[in-house]
Amino acid sequence: QVQLVESGGGLVQAGGSLRLSCAGSGGIFGDYHMGWFRQAPGKEREFVGVINWKGDVANYASSVMGRFTISRDNAKNTGFLQMNDLKAEDTAVYYCAAVQWRSALSYTARSYDYWGQGTQVTVSS
Known about the structure:
The protein is mostly beta strands. About 0% of the residues lie in helices and about 50% in strands.
């Protein structure tokens, strides 16, 4: 049973930075692509970025390009979302998600099989 546990959310001022972590268990961490999504109240879940199983390919939503960086440390069973230059519109619940490497990289939430519980990120302005 694959389990993902997120941490690192909180309150930050606009322009600040925050790093989210996603710890995986119940499977071989390096066998899964890892996606990040966010959802603000009243809005649909939005793609943030994805990193492939190996960690050598990453794609980002245009809204976060140049500000957010996804990385992973398979030896530590952990993925990361580094968020810089945060803006008020980044306020949302952030989720990490996983799908086996045999699947193509996806920007669509329904493509992912496993999800973390979500962590709140609030950016004040």
